[in-house]
Design a protein that fits this description.
67 residues; two-stranded antiparallel sheet; 2 helices; globular; binds iron/sulfur cluster
Length: 67
């Protein structure tokens, strides 16, 4: 799994950091997403990252699955 975030699209809603706090954080100044772990290893962390991508209201989180 490879994660990408588009900080230009991010609306600072914070759903990602709430849903997967080990993977996403929010910038202390502008509230936009910060990617902490672009390639999560543990299964729970990957599932949380997928859920966060679905919940993001702006579609700023992209998930690419490695096959
Ligand atoms: S959920 Fe989406 S819009 Fe909200 S902070 Fe995360 S990336 Fe930005």
């Amino acid at each position: 799994m490879e994660l990408r975030v588009d900080r230009e699209r991010c609306l600072s809603a914070g759903m990602c950091a709430l849903t997967a706090p080990e993977v996403f954080d929010q910038d202390a100044e502008d509230g936009r997403v910060l990617l902490l772990d672009a390639a999560p290893g543990p299964r729970e962390r990957r599932e949380a990252a997928r859920e966060a991508a679905e919940l993001c209201p702006s579609g700023a989180v992209t998930v690419a699955e490695n096959r």
